[in-house]
Amino acid sequence: MIRAASGKASGSGVVGKIVTAVPLSVLDLAPVVSGGTNGEALSHTTQLAQRTEDLGYRRFWVAEHHNMPGIASSAPAVLLAHLAAHTSTIRLGSGGVMLPNHAPLVVAEQFGTLVALHPDRIDLGLGRAPGTDQVTALALRRSMDALSADDFPQELGRLIDYFGSGTGTPRVTAVPGRGDAPAIWLLGSSDFSARLAGRLGLPFSFAHHFSSANTDLALAIYRDAFQPSRWLEQPYAMVAASAICAPTDAEAEWLAGPSGLSFLRLRQGRPGRMPTPEEAAEHPYTPLEREFVLARRDGQALGSPETVRRQLTALLDRTHADELMLTTMVYDIDARVRSFELIAEQVAPHLSR
Fold first, then answer.
1. Distance from the CA of 90 to the CA of which of 146, 265, 278, 350 falls in 20 to 30 A?
2. How far apart are CA 24 and CA 18, in angstroms?
3. Is 245 helix (H, G, I), strand (E, B) or coil?
4. pLDDT tops 90 at residue 21
5. Are 26 and 59 in contact (CB under 8 A)?
6. Nearest residue to 344 via CA among 137, 67, 52, 4
7. Cα(212)–Cα(150) distance, rounded to whole angstroms?
8. DSSP letter at 350?
9. What is the pLDDT of residue 242?
10. What are the residue boundaries of the Luciferase-like domain, all occurrences included (predicted)?
């Protein structure tokens, strides 16, 4: 049987050193910065996982992206094995594995192996987008078969079967995999996965950090569609949000510059490594570009601990999320770690729904 999300569906009280009515978790993309290397990016992600474990965050997830020079988390299963070996209690997972890129059997074997090595610590968050362009997706899969997002429900069903929770796949057994099932989550930025997660009775994580306009509708659809299952008795919704916390609002604004410029370049078809705050500040934005960057901040938590507390409280009031997953894309690893420290120590104790 596939295990449900860790914790009760209604949320928990105390999570390690974080005392809050709402569990807090971490999403990381192993950002590769200007002047840095892939190895340094992965080392920084490991450092962040260890520190957030110490602080009491519930989960640490990494996201699958490809053909992006500024993101080193292209192989979640490999990275999670490394992180699991360097932590001991925090739940680790994918946020997510993009199922259209992979044969379900491969995913079942990879995450079955992780569960066999690290029981009760592994989450498998699944997305239906490729996490890249179609040319790269084809290079990953080597076939046009099942590349469409419309094939996702069938591919998901096959994956569940390999874990031994469905009707089974004749003559093919995932080893490890069968009997070594992670907690499966569906991820989404629209209503498709929300409806599917509800219908299957799975926990659902919404990508508020890049699709804030769709958050309310998707969560409402998920909760309305939810049917109790062998995994959950009631809906469990997690909201992923961008958060940059610094001692002052002004410093947080400064730290946010590189991620804004990185996202702008990505949308312009010019992805690259994350620029420095100085480069972002000196960039000659056109009025339209500046408007784009500012619009992307809608729904982010950005500022001093007091400002971030107000923003996250408003997000909880709006979404009634059972859990918040925070992602912090800044240039400097020390600033990234400090942001999570400030949130754990000065924001989390005051959060409530």
1. 350
2. 8
3. strand
4. no
5. yes
6. 52
7. 23
8. G
9. 96
10. 34-316
Q: For residues 48 and 73, is the Cβ–Cβ distance under 8 A?
A: no
Quote the pLDDT of residue 16: 45
The structure's pTM equals 0.91
Q: Tell me the DSSP string of 189-204.
A: SSHHHHHHHHHHT--E
Separation of CA 263 from chain center: 17
How far is residue 119's CA from residue 114's CA, in Å, rounded to a whole number?
8
Decide the pairing of beta strands 204-207 and 91-98.
Answer: unpaired
- How many CB atoms neighbour CB 336 within 10 A? 22
Pair of tokens at residue 325 = 């997953």
Joined together, the tokens standing for residue 335 give 């600033």
Residue 212: its pLDDT value, please? 86
Instruction: Give the start-end residues of each E strand in 37-188.
Output: 59-62, 91-98, 122-127, 183-188
- What does 295-317 look like in DSSP terms, one character per residue? HHTTT-EEESHHHHHHHHHHHHH
Give the separation between CA 185 and CA 58, rounded to whole angstroms: 15
Report the Cα 98 to chain-centroid distance in Å.
12
Residue 341 main-chain phi, psi, to 5 deg? -65, -45
Strand partners, 245: 303
Residue 273 pLDDT exceeds 90: yes
**Residue 69, both tokens:** 């020079």
According to DSSP, the residues that pair with 14 across neighbouring strands are 19
| pLDDT of 166 over the 60 cut | no
Distance CA 273, CA 329 (A): 12
Whether domain 14-252+302-350 has CATH 3.20.20.30: the reply is yes
Return the amino acid letter for 65: H
Domain ranges of the chain: 14-252+302-350
Q: Say which residue, 179 or 17, is predicted with more confidence.
A: 179
**Residue whose C-alpha is closest to residue 326's, from 143, 341, 108:** 341
